[in-house]
Amino acid sequence: MSNFAVLQLSGCAGCEVALLNAEDWIDRYRLVYMPLVITAYDVPAVDILLVSGGVRSDEDLYNLRRAVKKAGQVVAVGTCAISGGIASLGDREDVREHFTAQLERRHLPTMLPKCRPIDAVVEVDRYLPGCPPTPELFLAILFDPPDRQIAKTVCHECGRKKLRDRRPAHLTGFQEGEVLPEICLINQGYLCVGTSTRGGCRALCTRPGHPCVGCRGPSDALIEKESAAWFKSIQSVFAAMTDVPADELDAALRSPQLALFLFQFADYAGTGRMPRPKEKVV
Ligand code: SF4
Ligand code: SF4
Ligand code: SF4
Fold this sequence. Notes:
This protein is α/β, with parallel strands linked by helices. The protein has ten helices and seven strands. The longest helix has 15 residues, at 227-241.
């Protein structure tokens, strides 16, 4: 029986909960390390190491570098490990000041100057984006079926119909208004970025009526480009389907609801490093 471990860096443990919900792996894999549910002092040698969370502190850095040496394969799991996610909030000066201001916190791990995705530090074999990835996606990464197919974009899984003759003049506020079934959320003025977002989640949010905020990251067409390309793609979809002014859209794209996900390339832009190759992304 193959074994695997889960190393949790700075994140929220949501990825771990999603993995536990994907119980079908239990007959085929032995989970040997996962501090959330297993008492074990250190990561043993494993076939697969799943890493969630961003590299936010010196402790993250130490644990990550140590653990990958014992792993046959390293998988970056979730938005935090792949691009920083919520752990990147610590990059904000006000958050950093708040964290370091209190004397009694001095025994906590030291925050690094910037939160980094794990592939800024170690080699990553595969990537599983999502916040968190769904249980089904966890099974796809563990079982790696040869016939696995991931929908190109969330739109391909959504089933809502895009209409030509329904062009909203302004955005409907986040979680405001009534959502009509079956009609594309963009036609209803919602800021849905499913057109440019990688599929695989089965349109978990959009089918019941919540706009996609892009947690699965950019689709294959955009994944090897910088963040500007993702923004441009979303802007051209809205220009084609709505009459929402460009500045209104731009302000909404940078709002807190979307900022954690739409800045998924921030760590690559300007560093000279290549963004994750699409062949490695599930
Ligand atoms: S990717 Fe999302 S669910 Fe996973 S640790 Fe980060 S914030 Fe939590
Ligand atoms: S609601 Fe969003 S995901 Fe669904 S079709 Fe419209 S843009 Fe695509
Ligand atoms: S619909 Fe969008 S935000 Fe929701 S799970 Fe899928 S990719 Fe993430």
